[in-house]
Write a structure and sequence with these properties.
Blueprint (H helix, E strand, L loop, with lengths): L8 E6 L3 H12 L1 H8 L3 E7 L3 H8 L4 E3 L2 H6 L5 E4 L6 H11 L3 E4 L2 H18 L3 E2 L10 H8 L5 E7 L2 H13 L3 H10 L8 H4 L2 H15 L9 E2 L7 H9 L2 E11 L4 E11 L11 E8 L3 E8 L3 H18 L30 E11 L4 H11 L4 E7 L11 E8 L2 E2 H12 L9 E5 L4
Parallel strand pairs: 1-2, 1-4, 2-3, 4-5, 5-6, 8-10, 10-17
Antiparallel strand pairs: 7-9, 7-11, 9-10, 11-12, 13-15, 13-16, 13-17, 14-15
Bound molecules: NADPH dihydro-nicotinamide-adenine-dinucleotide phosphate and L-homoserine.
Length: 445
C-alpha cells in the first residue's frame, strides 16, 4: 500500500490539561512535518475533559468535545486513546477499557504504569494492542526509546537519573538563592512541574515510579514499584547540602536501577554526586539520565522533564511510533518493555540492606579525645573503609557550645546492611549527641 492510501490515525485525547493541551497544540502546529515522518496523518478526532469549556478554549471546533471519556472509548472510529488524566483511579479503568475495546493506548501516567503496569501490559498483549509511555519518564527526553531501542545491543549495568524536575528545581533554588522549601515548591506548582499531589514529588514517589519503569526496560524484569526503596528530599538539611559542597559533591535526588549478580537495586534517594560530573550540574527543572551499557559505556540524556510542550513531544513521538506499526502483526512490533514478554528475567529486586553504595555520615559528637578513634573502629569492625573525614570546629556548629563538633565521614562502597549495623553501634555511643545523618554517595564513573 502506498503512503498516500493510508488513512489518518484517529486519536481520542482523555484530559486536556497541561499535557493534553500541549499535545493538541503541537500536533496542530507541526501536523505537516509529523505526517511526513509518520507516513500518514495523525488527527485528534475527539477530546474528553470534565471541563468542556476549557476544552473548547483549547480545541475550538477542531475536534468533537465530550465530558465523558467513555464516549471516546466507545467510538469505533478512534484508533488510539491518549490518557492524560493522571492517577490510579479513573485513569486505570479507562486505560483497561480502551485496551478491551481494541484501542492502542498512549499515556504519560507513570504512577499508573509503575503500580499497575503488569496488569495493563498483559491486557494489551492479550488484545494485540500497543501501550506506549515515552512521556512517563523524564518528560521530553526520549529515554524510553533510547533504552528500549537505541541501546538494545547492550547488557545494561546501571541507570541513574534526575527524573523529577520539581525536586531538582527545589534543590537548585534553595542552594542558589537561599529560598525556603515552601516558596520554591509553590513556584514549581505554578510552573506546572509538580504533580497534582506534590507529595509524590517531594517524597520521591514520582521519581521512584519512573525508576521502576526504567528498571523494567533496562533489565527485562517486571514492573515492581512495591519493591522500590523510596526516600524524598523533605528531611534533607541545608547543613548537609553545605558540607557536601565543601567536600566537592552536590546532592541530587536520583532514581537508580543497578544490576548486581544477585539481583537488581531499585532505589530513589538524595545522593551525593561529584561536582565534576555533568549530572551534578543539571539545574532547575531539567532532567538527566545516565545509562551504562557494557558495549556503549556511559551515556547521558538531558532535557526538559516536564511542562506542556516538552511532554507533548514525547506523547506525539509515541503516536508516530504507533502510526508506523499500526498494520504490523503484534509479534513483529517493538515490545512495550523492550524484552519479549516471555523472556523476562527472574532476577529479584534486592532489599535495601543488599544495596552496595558509599556513604556520607554526619555525626554531632562530643569534642574530646578518642571519639573519632571509637567511631572508625566501629566502621572497621563492619569492614567499612573510610574515604575522607571532615571535622567542623566547635564554633562553626550552629547554636551549640564549644564542646561539640560535627564529624563528616565519607566511606568507600559497602553493603547498606553493614552500614546500618555500624550506625546502630555509633548511635549508641554516649559521645554521639544527635541522630546520625546518613546519605548515599555515587561516583557514577
Ligand atoms: P492536568 O491536571 O493539568 O490535566 C488533567 C486533565 O484531565 C484536567 O483537565 C482534568 O480536568 C481532566 N480530567 C480529570 N478527570 C477526568 C475524567 N474523568 N475525564 C476526562 N478528563 C478528566 O494534568 P497534567 O496534564 O499535568 O498531567 C497529565 C498526566 O501526565 C499525569 O499522569 C502526569 O503525571 C503526567 N505528566 C505530566 C507532566 C507535566 O509536566 N505536567 C510531565 C510528564 C507526565 P479537571 O481539571 O476539570 O479535573
Ligand atoms: N512532577 C513531575 C516532575 C512531572 O516534577 O518531574 C514530570 O513527570
Amino acid at each position: 500500500m502506498s503512503q498516500e492510501q493510508l488513512r489518518p490515525v484517529r486519536v481520542g485525547l482523555l484530559g486536556i490539561g497541561t499535557v493534553g493541551g500541549g499535545t493538541f497544540t503541537v500536533l496542530q502546529r507541526n501536523q505537516a512535518e509529523i505526517r511526513r515522518r509518520a507516513g500518514r496523518g495523525i488527527e485528534v478526532a475527539m477530546v474528553a475533559d470534565l471541563n468542556t469549556d476549557l476544552a473548547k478554549q483549547v480545541v475550538g471546533d477542531a475536534a468533537q468535545i465530550v465530558a465523558d471519556a467513555r464516549a471516546v472509548i466507545a467510538n469505533p472510529d478512534i484508533d488510539v486513546v491518549v490518557e492524560l488524566i493522571g492517577g490510579y483511579g479513573i485513569a486505570k479503568a479507562l486505560v483497561l477499557e480502551a485496551i478491551a475495546a481494541g484501542k492502542h493506548v498512549v499515556t504519560a501516567n507513570k504512577a499508573l504504569l509503575a503500580v499497575h503496569g503488569t496488569e495493563i501490559f498483559a491486557a494489551a498483549r492479550d488484545k494485540g494492542v500497543m501501550v506506549a509511555f515515552e512521556a512517563a519518564v523524564a518528560g521530553g527526553i526520549p529515554i524510553i526509546k533510547s533504552l528500549r531501542e537505541g541501546l538494545t545491543a547492550n547488557q545494561i549495568q546501571w541507570v541513574a537519573g534526575i527524573i523529577n524536575g520539581t525536586t531538582n528545581f527545589i534543590l537548585s533554588e534553595m542552594r542558589d538563592k537561599g529560598l525556603d522549601f515552601d516558596v520554591v515548591l509553590k513556584e514549581a506548582q505554578r510552573l506546572g512541574y509538580a504533580e497534582a499531589d506534590p507529595t509524590f514529588d517531594i517524597e520521591g514517589v514520582d521519581a521512584a515510579h519512573k525508576a521502576t519503569l526504567m528498571s523494567a526496560i533496562a533489565f527485562g524484569i517486571p514492573v515492581q514499584f512495591d519493591k522500590a526503596h523510596v526516600e524524598g528530599i523533605t528531611k534533607l538539611s541545608a547543613t548537609d547540602i553545605r558540607y557536601a559542597e565543601q567536600l566537592g559533591y552536590r546532592i541530587k535526588l536520583l532514581g537508580i536501577a543497578r544490576r548486581q549478580a544477585a539481583g537488581i537495586e531499585l532505589r530513589t534517594h538524595p545522593t551525593l554526586v561529584p561536582m565534576r560530573r555533568l549530572i551534578a550540574n543539571v539545574e532547575g527543572a531539567m532532567n538527566a539520565v545516565m545509562v551504562q551499557g557494557d558495549a556503549v559505556g556511559t551515556t547521558m540524556y538531558y532535557g526538559k522533564g516536564a511542562g506542556a510542550e516538552p511532554t507533548a513531544s514525547a506523547v506525539i513521538a509515541d503516536l508516530v511510533d504507533i502510526a508506523r506499526q499500526l498494520e504490523a502483526a503484534p509479534a513483529s512490533r517493538v515490545p512495550a518493555l523492550a524484552f519479549q514478554p516471555d523472556e523476562l528475567s527472574p532476577l529479584p529486586i534486592l532489599p535495601i540492606d543488599e544495596v552496595v553504595t558509599s556513604f556520607y555520615l554526619r555525626l554531632r559528637v562530643a569534642d574530646q579525645a578518642g571519639v573519632l578513634a571509637r567511631i572508625t573502629s566501629i566502621l572497621a569492625e563492619q569492614g567499612i573503609s573510610i574515604d575522607a573525614v571532615l571535622q567542623r570546629e566547635a564554633d562553626e556548629v550552629s547554636g551549640e557550645g564549644g564542646n561539640q563538633t560535627d564529624l563528616i565521614i565519607l566511606t568507600h562502597e559497602t553493603k547498606e546492611g553493614a552500614m546500618n549495623t555500624a550506625l546502630a553501634g555509633m548511635q549508641a555511643l554516649p559521645t554521639v549527641l544527635a541522630p546520625i545523618v546518613k546519605l548515599r554517595k555515587e561516583e557514577l564513573a
